[in-house]
Design goal:
Helix content is 28%, strand content 20%. By secondary structure, the protein is an alpha/beta fold.
Amino acid sequence: MSCFTPWTNKVNALKAALLIIDVQNGLFLGNPPAEADVVIDRINELSKKARDAGVPVFFVQHEQAQGELLYGSHGWGLHADLIRADEDLRLRKTTPDAFLGTELEVKLRSLRIDSLIVCGYASEFCVDTTVRRAAALGFAVIIAADAHTTHDKQHLGGLAIREHHNATLTQISSFAVFISAQKTAEINFYSTL
């Protein structure tokens, strides 16, 4: 099944990019989030499919002025199990919004990207905020429904938080672009180069 079917019958009308958000040592090592290893495997599956189709892959890394996500520190680094390629793009951010204060939108527009597949960490913060901002900017979004995660909270477990955001984000229609949630195995990339 094509991931673009809900948006248009003209698959080539859309050009996608894959955003992998905050899969960093400081967030995944020690006290890992829900299904951490499985989520990383699914992200690797997505990035391989994206590269095979000529779809750009962006690794987004959160940083803080101090603590375990200090720029350049081991904690800030990408998780060792992530498969990377030389052509992949890297982006630094300081807020839950991967667009705010970064060159992400400019880069996407320069590549004529109009749709995003989003995965990574944390479902209720950086994934949620970036999906909403992308839609507000006019990018259609597919949330990789089983390839984002978060830590358990006192009020709700990480997997339940993920499911809540999959259900909630896909109900937003006011941005006038399509937001869907699809499992990794269902997501197909089509090169429109």
